[in-house]
Amino acid sequence: MKQQLEQAxxxxxxxxxxxxxxxxxxxxxxxxxxxxxxCASFLKELLRGFGFSxxxxxxxxxxxxxxxxxxxxxxxxxxxxxxxxxxxxxPEPLEEWSSNPFELVERGDRLFGRGVADDKGDIISRxxxxxxxxKITSGEAGLGIKWIIEGEExxxxxxxxxxxxxxxxxxxxDACLWEAGDLTEQGIPNFYLGVKGMLYVEISRRTADYDxxxxxxxxxxNAAWELIQLLSRLRDKRGRVRIPGFYKRVKPxxxxxxxxxxxxxIDYKRLMQQLxxxxxxxxxxxxALRELVFEPTCNIAGLASGHVGKGAKTITPSLASVKIxxxxxxxxxxxxxxxxxxRFVKRFGDFDINVYTMLPPARCxxxxxxxxxxxxxxxxxxxxxxxVFPSMYGTxxxxxxxxHGIDAGMLNSxxxxxxxxxxxxxNIMKKDLMRSTLQLASMFRRLAT
Amino acid sequence: MKQQLEQAxxxxxxxxxxxxxxxxxxxxxxxxxxxxxxCASFLKELLRGFGFSxxxxxxxxxxxxxxxxxxxxxxxxxxxxxxxxxxxxxPEPLEEWSSNPFELVERGDRLFGRGVADDKGDIISRxxxxxxxxKITSGEAGLGIKWIIEGEExxxxxxxxxxxxxxxxxxxxDACLWEAGDLTEQGIPNFYLGVKGMLYVEISRRTADYDxxxxxxxxxxNAAWELIQLLSRLRDKRGRVRIPGFYKRVKPxxxxxxxxxxxxxIDYKRLMQQLxxxxxxxxxxxxALRELVFEPTCNIAGLASGHVGKGAKTITPSLASVKIxxxxxxxxxxxxxxxxxxRFVKRFGDFDINVYTMLPPARCxxxxxxxxxxxxxxxxxxxxxxxVFPSMYGTxxxxxxxxHGIDAGMLNSxxxxxxxxxxxxxNIMKKDLMRSTLQLASMFRRLAT
Lengths: 449, 449
Prior knowledge:
- Two copies of one chain form a homodimer.
- Helix content of chain A is about 35%, strand content about 25%.
- The first copy, chain A, is α/β, with parallel strands linked by helices.
- A six-stranded mixed sheet of chain A has the order 1-2-6-3-7-19, with helices on one face. In chain A, strands 18-9-8-20 form a four-stranded mixed sheet. A four-stranded antiparallel sheet of chain A has the order 13-15-11-16, covered by helices on one side.
- The longest helix of chain A is centred in the N-terminal third of the chain and has 24 residues, at about 1-25.
- Chains A and B meet through strand 11, strand 12, helix 6, helix 9 and strand 13 of A and strand 11, strand 12, helix 6, helix 9 and strand 13 of B.
């Protein structure tokens, strides 16, 4: 099938790049709320041209969501939901871009532009995979496709959960192809069958209305010292969280999941080098991956009290605060962790807790047909077995889909370690755009029977 | 003697206010380096007019220091060193001043202007105390006076120590009258026979070159957590410092010093209210004062790591730092405490220590003739016994004088709790300017025999 797919890709490549160029040209920055309607309208027309019935529906934040559907002519295949987002990160700092962020530019073997790796390139790759599927099956493939393309992903998808629940009839499918995975430096596709959950809180302590001259330190409370009392009890030396019950509901990895971790090929030493980490805690990639994938964390993301600027100032701080992200694994629920945290914190005094993010973890069933098809297609196109992670190390709103019984995973690969996601000079390899599209088409073909 | 002094004050009050007005008019802000030479030159001429031989000498920072001396006509008296500073704090925020900061303005029973309380009012008060002493003794008093007036006090007196050592022959005296003390709300003079020392450091930990996505939290070091490990061991729950040897050299208060604390009259509850402290740790003023005066402290003045701005950011910080001021008491030496701290910190990993300030504590002998004269003069002028603190709660460069065997204390009172030191609308009571001048003249008279 590979040759046939490559031939079809050659025929559509010019159109594909033209559509990608147009999609990139929209400054659809969700943080600024710019050109969201325009971009959604463009996608509506674009998808219509490919045989989708499309509507643009406003979510509860009054932001446009593209909902599309394509009924198969053939019979017997699965219905696949595609999830993407048309919004992008702000392009700033502009001076660090080598070309206009909102213009698709080809340099060497790479394509540059804001969103080309996250997530507009992915949208176009999927769209042309459907087109290629049509070509090689003469439009007779039995694959139903539903598509949700939101415009709030880069600001944390605050409305997605409610939107999915409300429009479940238009979203219900056998499986969901979430955003794209990525490629290792050696060109091995990384697929992810889930995400960690997240509880992001700010815990703060106020001991007085304003900071005091530190000559009073012997007799007045110091908010920083009080916060440190609390934090020093929140984790033990090895990093284990000491909130009672924190690990109680954690589902330990299955043998199958541990096996999948063992099979992953990453250059751990190189990753540590790239991260600039000199003190490596784990001897093997397996040990590191096991923690990255399966361990919940309690990470201080920010700490502030008193004088944080330059130089010396002699005050006793009246306010101290810490920002913590807990990444959660299957079995843990953010609401429950928050309740346990509240009870724990209470023991140490009068602290406030401000909640920023609550996202449950989510996992796709590892043996599901959609995963099988994705892996087989990857072997065909890339000539290697992909790395299949039971979960990403990071977080996303996958649960909004998965909780409705729809398996969702990141099962194609478009970016690589040098793609500068969320950063200036975002880019993908031209050949990875092709390979992602071919792998998707091959996967769709496998699911269409 | 009091009536005679009051009579003399009335005769000179007009000139005194005129000179104060001129001195206030100099914008001698050491933080900006403005009008320091002009102000020093003015003081040189002014003091000459009162019979002082005066020179302006540059210190190692090339800033002008006024050095003056007045040889007594009479015999048998002491030689007294006066320490003052002609520099002031920046006047900003200007919009919060009710009148021009550099113009002496009388409103109600108060005089307003930058420096009127700290330290220009004090200079003029001392100058006219000398004038009054001359008047009532017909210039025959046996009191020798030396005077050092520097222009770097408000930026931490970085050159004072070396300057004093270099010009010791012009500074050597039986005792030193340091900057002024203050008055309680009930009008009781507060005298201070010393200062605490200070070691101000910033301790920081860098675990990587830049902050990382917190999805890597399970396998990479977090600078904030590492700093908390250290800080949680630096003090115990009650606030006792756990650096080995920290308390070893602390000289416990003598019975005489404890007695002097017992005799101090302050409204402790009101002080706590003014500080906005709801959770009062000490039942009595004595308990609080005992700690304020005699306890060394380890105070977190600032704490920063990772994302300290608004909102949520999911990073694992690569840098964490804490600013700590240690206030030291007699027996402790900042160099030794720093060495103990370095050894202590080393146990917890690779932390950097940046030293901002090192000032030793200093104390005047409580029974010295200059203190006795000051107390007797205060009883005469104020009609109450002054509060005599063995030490301030705060810090200053007193040791630069005391280490040469010269007793130095804050033995007159010019500001009150509403004087807004270092703040907009700095002011003193007109009557306190008079009472300070009379008390000084009475004290000089007592030391002149």
